[in-house]
Amino acid sequence: VTALNRAAALIQEIAGGDAPAEGIDRFPGKVAPRSITLSTRRSNNLLGLHLTREEIAKLLASIDIPTQPTGTDELLVTPPSFRVDIEREADLIEEVARRYGYNRIPTSLPKVSLSYPEQDANRLKREQTSAQLSAAGYNEAINYSFNSAANIDLLEIAREDQRHTTLPLLNPLSEEQGVMRTMLLPGLLDNVRRNLNYQQTAIRLFELGKVFFPAGENQQPLEKHRLTGVLAGNRHGSASPLHFKAEEVDLLDAKGGVEFLLQSMGLNTATAKQPAEAPLVFAEVTAESAEPFAEARYSLDLLCGPIRLGSLGLIRANVLRRFAIKHPVYYFDLDYDALCALPATKPAFSSLPVYPAVQRDIALLVAEEVKAGELPTAVRNIGDPLIERCEIFDIFRGEKIPAGYKSVALTITYRSTKKTLTEKNVEKSHTKIVELLTATFKGNIRHE
After folding, report:
1. What percent of the chain is modeled with pLDDT above 70?
2. How far is CA 367 from CA 106, 115, 358, 395, 439, in A?
3. Contact in structure between 166 and 196 (CB atoms under 8 Å)
4. Beta strands at 358-367 and 202-213: parallel, antiparallel or unpaired
């Protein structure tokens, strides 16, 4: 006020101004003090401390911020007018932390609940299948999900076959990619042709992917997983000139690949001690199940009881020529969703055998129409606890074999988990097996 009076007097003396002696007050009015509610619980949660309401009030009073207790754990705080920076509760908590001392606040990691996302069991199975086949010498192919509608005609698929009912694309990239695929085999045959053009002498490819079938108007297509493989060229690959003689793949290579896959999935694990209730079997194709693109004499169906899970065999030469392939190609095509739906046996640990095994051979003369694979299956189904393994090691046809008959030789391994077997123990089980085989298959024991 003294300075204002002196300034007014100088203005009057020099400039001739006029100023009232009592002055004029232009102060717009006092600002009413505002109050902020401060919660003790929220303050401690944010700071990670355990301060009482009285301790917080004392800290604020040390910087001229008055407080008044209210409620159970709250303070009604009235910041001074010169503390224009304090507008909300968080500002007051910051002042509490500053006065308490940042160096005194304990350091701790935040507690975050971490959960491992649930894995898709079917996706894990597909990854395991791909890894198993890759370990067996196959290379995985990944083709487009859409191809040409003409591919189904190249495979001579009948018009009434479901695989001939394709799902066209509204805006295809090209004519060769105009429909969603209903089979994986055409794409793999294109891969075979390309590999042969690049002079690859050994081809083992597989693809595990989806096929698509129409489900009705304005409906999403029906999607199924198929597992298809192709084999062509040299059996042993580029290493054959050094370590193996050059041999072409055959039906047994395709069958071996499928058997390896089934074993890795825990399927078809029938043993002598624990026969499977519904084991997977390879059966000759019938007129109804024969694929039009495969040679019926070199084809097999994979069956689980009456259910057909797939097929394998040799692709016909005229079909291969349509794909510009001049070499024999074998294939296998499996319903992967159906395989995954089958009950699988979990791997179990068993200690190494303590007692020695005894092997006995049986050579049985049976009619030609008897399937050789039925003999070891019959032996396994006996359920004798001493039978450890039964396998075919020879099928013979010759001068000493009567016309219309063949000799099937089996080797049977006997072992006990409790004692060393005696001749009497083995002879009892062996005689039972011989009697079963001769009675079931109308055969005779061959002694020569």
Report:
1. 96
2. 89, 63, 29, 12, 13
3. no
4. unpaired
Token pair, residue 393, equals 């090691």
Convert the pLDDT of each residue in 406-443 to its tens digit.
999 999 999 998 899 898 889 999 999 999 899 888 88
**Residue 72: strand, helix, or coil:** coil
Please, which residues have CB within 8 angstroms of residue 122's CB and are 6 or more apart in sequence?
340
Nearest CA to 181 among 330, 342, 298, 333?
A: 333
Between 402 and 256, the higher pLDDT residue: 256
DSSP 305: T
Residues 6+ apart with CB under 8 A from 215: 221, 222
Give the span between the Cα atoms of 136 and 65, in whole angstroms: 79
Rounded Cα distance between 72 and 87, Å, is 23
- Number of C-beta neighbours around residue 328 at 10 A: 17
- Between 92 and 112, the higher pLDDT residue: 92
How far is 182 from 163, CA to CA, in rounded Å?
5
- Decide: 229 and 254 in contact? Cβ < 8 Å: yes
**Residue 347 has which token pair?**
């791997």
The C-alpha atoms of residue 313 and residue 321 are separated, in whole angstroms, by: 17
